[in-house]
Specification:
Rossmann fold; about 40% helix; 16 helices
Length: about 450
Amino acid sequence: MTRSTTKSEPLYGVDRSDEELRALVDGRSANVAVYGLGKMGLPLATVYAGRVADVIGVDIDQSVVESVNRGECHIDGEPGLSELVADAVENGALRASTDAKATAEAANVHVVIVPTPITETREPDLSIFDTVVDSIAHGLSPGDIVFVECTVPPGTCRDRLVPRLVDQSDLSAGEFGAAFCPERTSSGRAIEDITGAYPKIIGGVDDESARVAEAVYESVTDNDVIRVSDATTAESVKLFEGLYRDVNIALANELGTLADDLEIDVREAIDAANTQPFCHIHDPGPGVGGHCIPWYPYFVMSRVETPTPLLRTAREVNDSMPAFTADVVERELEARGTSIDGARVLVLGVTYRPGVAETRATPAGPLITDLKRRGAEPFATDPMLDDETVSSFGAEPVALSEVGRSDMDAVVVVTPHEAFDDVEWEGFEDVVVVDGRATLGDVGHPTYTIGSGRR
């Protein structure tokens, strides 16, 4: 089915009641463009196609576009997504294109969900975002609305998106709408999260933008839609969620390093403390990884002049945990009379969290690097990754079936995949174990658990 290139009735800036606006949305009369068909963009486009209107998804990767147009899903590990993509394409509700400008000309609802990487100098890189915005401006018409779902620094919609759209189009501010409507989605549960696991936050650059966003996202989610004061507040909400976790994990990690000095099981103390309803300390571990938490502090710090010592210290603490883990490995080996120089150390888990094939900012990377710096010979295994990916971190790959048959001096649990429950620990001889996540029981070998100490 070929979608019409004629725009439907505009949603923004038309004198209609809330009920009339919602009826327009419910009637699937919008033309929607979703810019970015990655691990969060494709699920979002699919949900929009099922609940709001026909969608054209835009991506610069020709292979992604061809895959989607065949009704195939290039994102692994997302329950239900493959079936939804296939159904939406078959029904004519979803198709993909590499032509952002042509797509923008046909759409009156523009949804931006592209990556915002961090540069080497810890600055958010908005170049991809800017490119998409320029394409949208090429086809922007009066009454169009632009929703930003990807994470951006506070003030981006107000100070960057709207001025850029005005500059690159022939429209004035107020002729089109814009709102920040952050994705609150985790890998492995995208459809569930988008359609209602959490309330949807929306904030407009003006009241009409917020009203339109509220009407649209009431169709997207089965949960509440929370309308905050403005787009900058909504942008901050998204970041504050990650900042809370980063600071909380840093507290847990710093407390976890005190287990030997205090001669207590810090994890036990944390669990008991958390029975008080105002205490919610997270768990210590070998580090913090992923696409969000390690980077969000820089989205805020790069945009404010006020000092943020707590955010910086939290990053330093969490970034230090792989080195702390290597310290523990070295110390535990020495306690057994083995030098880390030349020791064979097996890392269990390279992805940043269990059950996902994603490695961005994984603590396994700096841990492996640190072990090599100390003279150890690192090995690694991960059921989610191929040998080439494991090797790219500087470790010798070990097949999961060979774990327990390998001649190792130490084993470190970084990411507790379920597959590791079947490790045959009795196959190791005279090995020390460092449990970074407190997921091991009695494995029959001396074990040091981060936050709990030696047992």
